[in-house]
Design goal:
alpha+beta; 5 strands; HIT family, subunit A; binds zinc ion; five-stranded antiparallel β-sheet; 173 residues
């Protein structure tokens, strides 16, 4: 039977530990990180007026970033027009940084809403940006129960923070 490629999914077994981990933290894990003002330690790549971008420390794939409003809200309805525009701009900026530094073949960009939708942190809306490479849903996770994420979080963080839009456009000239 021909294999249905659309059924292939990235599989990240360490996500189970993440769910346990955040279950033990009191309050919102994103608001906590934002309030700590230790961006490098917390892998906060950048802050804009209304939004921020952070590396997912339990990534689905190399370079997995989450972009979200600074304000704690669980829906788009709870956001102002300015906050929504700012969020979209930051999604576009992070996608640009990831394209430039990691050269993926594509992206999955989306939101998990509610428990059934797979949301780990339900109270604070966040948009996942997951870079994809051809062949990244390979047999390794299925057979070995492990997944090869080729680059450390520190390394990805360094590359993304050093890759602002200004620097990218200067290099193109
Ligand atoms: Zn929050």
């Amino acid at each position: 039977m021909k294999k249905n490629r659309s059924m292939e999914r990235l599989w990240a077994p360490w996500r189970a530990r993440y769910i346990q981990h955040i279950g033990r933290i009191k309050g919102c894990v994103f608001c906590k990180r934002l309030g700590e003002r230790r961006d490098a330690k917390n892998f906060i790549v950048t802050r804009t007026r209304y939004s921020f971008a952070v590396l997912n420390i339990f990534p689905y794939n190399n370079g997995h970033v989450m972009v979200m409003p600074k304000r704690h809200t669980n829906s788009f309805r709870g956001m102002t027009q300015a906050e929504k525009c700012d969020l979209l701009d930051l999604i576009d900026d992070m996608k640009g940084r990831l394209s430039y530094t990691l050269r993926p073949d594509g992206f999955n960009i989306g939101i998990n809403l509610g428990a059934a939708g797979g949301a780990g942190v339900r109270g604070h809306i966040h948009v996942h940006i997951v870079p994809r490479w051809v062949g990244d849903t390979n047999f390794m996770p299925v057979l070995a129960g492990t997944k090869v994420v080729s680059e450390s979080l520190e390394s990805v963080y360094r590359r993304l923070t050093q890759c602002s839009t200004d620097k990218r456009s200067k290099k193109r000239k």
